Amino acid sequence: MQSSARMKKIVNILEMSPEKLAPRVKQAREQLGLSTAELARQANVEFYSVTRVENENEDPGILTSLAVAEAAKIINFDSHVVDQDATRFAELLASDKRAAGVLFDEITTNYLSPSIAGECPTGIFSLNTSTRARGRFQIVETVALEDQIRKFKGDLFLILPRDLGNISKNCLKLSRRMGLEQADQNQDQLYWNHLATGRAVNVSSRRLAHSVEAVTALCKESGFMSPSSYLDIVWAAFMNHFHLERTHRSECKKHNVDEVGGFWQLIYDYIRMLRMVHLDDSRSGRPRRQFT
Length: 292
Prior knowledge:
Layout: H1 18-32, H2 36-43, H3 47-53, H4 62-71, H5 84-95, H6 97-111, H7 114-117, H8 129-133, H9 143-150, H10 161-177, H11 185-196, H12 205-222, H13 227-255, H14 263-284
Helix pairs in contact: 2-3, 2-4, 5-6, 5-13, 5-14, 6-14, 10-11, 10-12, 10-13, 12-13
């Protein structure tokens, strides 16, 4: 029997479905010589979460499954590049909130075009979460930027599940206009609409795999984008979310502070801003700028 270190690593969200993941996690845990409780501690999850992940009849959340799979050493997070600027911002939100606000305002003032910067108020922490949720804290994304993401020309390390929700529901809309119908398409539309709100990301692993399979098939039929590119985007989006959330929580624990309220809205706004800066750099032929 091969050691868990040599087991083939998971690189596709479809491999995270309960029926595929459960036996692999259990096998890896046993090869590592870990009890269920020990694996749970390494994954920083509750004991029952590991037992759920190892039971293919259960349906754990995708972020929980990723945490357990990483602890079982069947996911190689080191192979995935997460944006350094976004990572630093997630750290600063815990370690030096004032510095995070200054950095955000500096980029808004000095690197965005006036028409876009006018939509970005300074003093981001003076706006509470509910205010931002109502849409008063908006960064206007251009059609060109959305097209860049959809055509897989954008940076994968600046993609989040919320973007994935928008991309997927747009594919479903296009497919419907083309007369391409699939079972559960209405439910899939509602599912991706929900993910696009950014309010919940630890979604059902089984439902996620089912909906990703449906959209992947429609990508091929409609020509919306290549199926392999779509699967890469899905994987990158959840890997990015997992990394940034873990980074922020680790920094909060290190500095003995509470997690920042509205953390994901702040991260999402910051990443959208970075994408516009990088798009502008690309159009102007400038090297990509970094702010850390």
